[in-house]
Design goal:
Layout (H helix, E strand, L loop, with lengths): L4 H11 L17 E5 L2 E4 H9 L3 H4 L3 H21 L6 H27 L2 H12 L5 E11 L2 H12 L4 H8 L10 E6 L5 H8 L10 E3 L2 E13 L4 H26 L24
Antiparallel strand pairs: 1-2, 3-4, 3-6, 5-6
Helix pairs in contact: 1-4, 2-4, 5-10, 6-10
Length: about 280
């Protein structure tokens, strides 16, 4: 049975909840040793990292409640690991190798991202994107989605005869907005499928469209109102800008690193189906 680190730690935490943490007046650092197991030191740093990998419900507990459980987990984990001696399976060693390289790669990227994406860089990206942007037009509309053109024409006739749009939408629309009277809220150009957008652009506030065919079915659309929207404040778009900047930094760093290292691809002809052959790493 495979026992994951999180499962193992969580089990020990649940057994050690009633035990309190030791109290010490010493100056503690990440390298402060809390135990030595078979010559291997367990430090406060190890304890902190172990806590960070716990399930959320355990991380929410007070540290004095968690201490003994994490301590026991690390001590027993190290004792069990050492008991293997040289008996580590190839699959386990390969997993360790992959995890180590993955963690180190993540740290390398994280350091470069942190150094590159400062508040000034984010502000500059915002200004480049929005400083000269003209106010854009936004639309507030509602629709009734129907399966056939005949149904759409019938609904349009009812609306022309004075039926209330929201009531008909709640009664007849097959779309998810139906229960809300067909309301779509505010949107700008490019957010809707082209056929729907064209119908909205052709309307004046208060007008109802003729039936419109899209990939979703047949729509009858009413344009409620329009407005001119200024550039959003930085706080609203900060996360999006940071995400874009991170992607750019990652792409540049990966290219830089790949260009600066020797990579020799094996000339061996390997059938990709070996990926599913777990017997190759079984011992």
């Amino acid at each position: 049975m495979l026992v994951t680190n999180k499962t193992w730690c969580a089990g020990l935490i649940s057994l050690g909840l009633a035990l309190a943490a030791p109290v010490s007046a010493e100056e503690v650092t990440a390298k402060t040793v809390v135990a030595t197991v078979g010559g291997v030191e367990i430090t406060v740093g190890h304890m902190i990292v172990a806590k960070s990998t716990l399930p959320a419900q355990y991380q929410a507990l007070e540290d004095d409640v968690l201490w003994q459980g994490i301590y026991d987990q690390l001590v027993q984990q190290n004792a069990l690991a050492q008991s293997l001696g040289d008996g580590v399976t190839e699959a386990t060693q390969l997993t360790i190798d992959n995890q180590v390289s993955g963690l180190l790669a993540g740290e390398a990227l994280g350091k470069r991202i942190q150094a590159a994406i400062t508040d000034d860089v984010i502000q500059q990206a915002y200004e480049e994107r929005f400083a000269d942007a003209e106010p854009s037009k936004e639309f507030n509309a509602a629709h009734i989605l129907l399966e056939t053109e005949e149904d759409a024409k019938a609904v349009k006739s009812e609306l022309d005869a004075g039926a209330e749009f929201g009531a008909l939408a709640r009664e007849k629309s097959t779309g998810p907005s139906g229960p809300n009277g067909g309301a779509l809220g505010w949107f700008s150009k490019g957010m809707m499928v082209p056929e729907f957008e064209e119908a909205v652009l052709a309307l004046e506030p208060g007008q109802v469209s003729e039936p419109v065919k899209t990939q979703f079915g047949w729509h009858v659309v009413v344009l409620n109102e329009t407005r001119m929207a200024d550039a959003p404040p930085l706080d609203e778009v900060r996360d999006d800008l940071v995400s874009e900047l991170e992607n750019e930094v990652v792409a540049n760093v990966v290219k830089e690193v790949m260009d600066g290292i020797e990579i020799v691809k094996s000339e061996a002809e390997i059938d990709p189906s070996v990926l599913s052959d777990n017997s190759l790493i079984a011992e």
